[in-house]
Q: What sequence folds into this?
């Protein structure tokens, strides 16, 4: 009987060792993928809050999980210090979004720049969007204020829509700037097809959380949903530090 007791204790140690061999990151990943096999997990790491892990998804958005993978949180994590609240979730998400925007080759965007560029904004746009047209009418003013405008395609009605066809024609035009100007002035753009990044940019917009147009992203990754007057937008853009 004594030997059997020691054998049971030994088995317990072996089991505990195998559990410890799996890191919290592995446990959390297995738990999440068992729930949703196609969940686009980019990384899992310890969060600033003890015993809480942050799960970064493709597109930069965050989830939080307990070390055993049993509890999952979606929302903002704030740090309170000296009476001030800092949104740690927003900081991480913005940094990830800024990194993704900066990885897009300039020749895959439609870029309006001025004589003296001090910063830039990246704009997910749809040619059929009234507020996108209003924003575009102020691009020249933004350029004069030192803000470069980089357009990405985001056809709100999806692939195959009128906006999708127009955006494809713009990206395939010999002169993209002129084609964009024509489309934003509600003039017809000659239909044209070619190898283009419209689908890829549309998918990227969905991944980073774009829900409407225009969606403006500052150089530091901060997302501004909707139209902003040129002077107001320029003031925010010039303050944004990558």
A:
């Amino acid at each position: 009987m004594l030997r059997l007791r020691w054998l049971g204790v030994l088995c317990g140690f072996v089991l505990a060792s195998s559990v410890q061999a799996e890191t919290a990151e592995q446990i959390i990943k297995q738990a999440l993928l068992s729930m949703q096999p196609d969940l686009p997990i980019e990384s899992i790491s310890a969060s600033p809050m003890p015993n809480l892990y942050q799960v970064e998804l493709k597109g930069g958005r965050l989830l939080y999980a307990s070390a055993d993978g049993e509890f999952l949180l979606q929302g903002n994590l704030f740090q309170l210090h000296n009476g001030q609240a800092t949104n740690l979730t927003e900081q991480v998400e913005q940094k990830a979004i800024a990194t993704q925007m900066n990885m897009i080759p300039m020749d895959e965007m439609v870029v309006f720049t001025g004589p003296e560029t001090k910063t830039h904004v990246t704009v997910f746009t749809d040619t059929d969007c009234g507020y996108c047209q209003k924003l575009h009418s102020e691009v020249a003013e933004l350029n004069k204020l030192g803000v470069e405008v980089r357009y990405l395609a985001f056809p709100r009605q999806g692939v195959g829509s009128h906006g999708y066809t127009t955006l494809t024609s713009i990206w395939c035009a010999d002169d993209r700037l002129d084609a964009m100007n024509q489309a934003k002035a509600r003039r017809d753009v000659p239909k044209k097809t070619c190898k283009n990044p419209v689908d890829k940019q549309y998918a990227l917009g969905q991944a980073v959380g774009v829900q409407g147009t225009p969606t403006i992203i500052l150089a530091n990754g901060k997302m501004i949903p909707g139209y902003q007057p040129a002077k107001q937008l320029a003031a925010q853009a010039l303050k944004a530090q990558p």
About this structure: Residues 21-86 form a domain with the Nuclear Transport Factor 2; Chain: A, fold (CATH 3.10.450.70). Residues 112 and 149 are 5 Å apart (CA to CA). The mean pLDDT is 89.
